[in-house]
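Sample intake — Beta-lysine acetyltransferase
Collected from: Fictibacillus enclensis
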Amino acid sequence: MQTDTYYKNTTIKQHDITASICLDFFNERLRVDDYRGNIQSMVKAIHDLIQQQNFSKVIIKARAEHLPELLSLGFLPEAWFSRYFNGSNCVAMCKYYSNERKRSDFWVEQDRIMDQIHSTPPAKQETVLPESYSVRLAVPEDCTRLAGLYSKVFEVYPTPMNDSDYIEKTMENGTVYYVIEHQGEVVSAASADINQTYHNAELTDCATLLEHRKFGLMKILIDQLEQELKSRHIYCAYSIARSLSFGMNAVFSQRGYLYQGRLIKNCLIFDKYEDMNLWVKDLSSL
């Protein structure tokens, strides 16, 4: 497993700033996950790194109160994470280094999909797991089967989910997976990547084999993950979904998540950079 070919987590440390960053080689972007100190110094250090790596996008997970200063430094808000920092809000402040990366190719079409989703009435009844299907918390022994599932569903994916060693390492680092089995085969899975410092979790790695997608299995997995997170006193749950996917966005909308922005050309999925919608839910109200 060579995660360094995908990304590298590192730290910027200077006399007036410290920042935890991710150099995302696969998606040609730099992400600032945490910081403190002089914001102008941080932005200069980021700019220098961008030039070295030839990246085309920067994302700063910023405190809401820093939005005006980052605006003055050329960053634009793309998404709002309610209660991300132990109950305080976070805003994704972005800057681009190429016109091609900044330009959304399907913005109006994606707006139409969102209009459809917002006009869809709430589900009248909960999705029930069909007979011969079962759901449970995944364990390390499932990693090989999980890698097989992700290999079948995603030809290209932002993280090496086709690598069982990588999946096992994420489990060791605290990521929670739930799986649905049918006749001994893992046919659907999703995970919650937990931030133990700020007590939030990203629901991600959602995958269902094509022939099993008519049963609404992902709604069941998300419900299980939400219950698991709440039992661990994690109340901010969020997810990013492909903006062109009616199905996944509809799932989060039906589950009570709020649409809170769109990240332009955020991830390389399938054959192109995709815009991603952000969905956020306060689990404390469940």
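Post-analysis note: The helical segments are 39-53, 67-72, 99-102, 107-119, 143-153, 164-172, 217-231, 246-254.
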